[in-house]
Amino acid sequence: MGDLFEQPFSAPVLWGLIVACGFGTWMLRLSFIQLAGIWALPRWLSRGLRYVPPAVLAALVVPAIVQADVLFTPAWDWTRLAAGLAAAAVALTKRVVLTLVVGMAALWIFMGLA
């Protein structure tokens, strides 16, 4: 039986993998930026890409509001839910920075009251 703390890679190999992965993701993003002026996206794809930022933001925010524990049972906390509702109300104005500021301020205020 092997050692529990045995390293699967040596340090140079690990750093090489990290650099290679970073370079690969950089090249992937760069290719889209470079091709933006040359290659036109199909209309259906550019319409669909408009929904990516709200979907990503929702995927980041909703779990923080719901706060599921390790067993995936909701651990409701009224402070996060109230702050999320306050931020959602301000989000209707379509002012992103104001939404972030109001949401964080509401969270800190509600956590201070709890």
Question: Can you characterise this structure?
Answer:
The protein has helices at residues 11-35, 43-49, 52-66, 78-91, 96-113. The protein has 114 residues and is mainly α. The chain is flat. The protein starts with 10 loop residues before the first helix and ends with a helix.
Helix fraction? 55-70%
Number of helices: 5
Q: Rg, please?
A: 22 Å
Quick one: overall form? flat
Residue windows where pLDDT falls under 50 for at least 5 positions: none
User: Class by helix and strand content?
Assistant: mainly alpha
Residues in β-strands, percent: under 5%
Write the layout of secondary structure elements.
Layout: H1 11-35, H2 43-49, H3 52-66, H4 78-91, H5 96-113
Helix pairs in contact: 4-5
Short key terms for the protein model shown above:
mainly alpha
Write a compact overview of the structure shown:
Among the domains are: about 5-35; about 70-114, no CATH class.
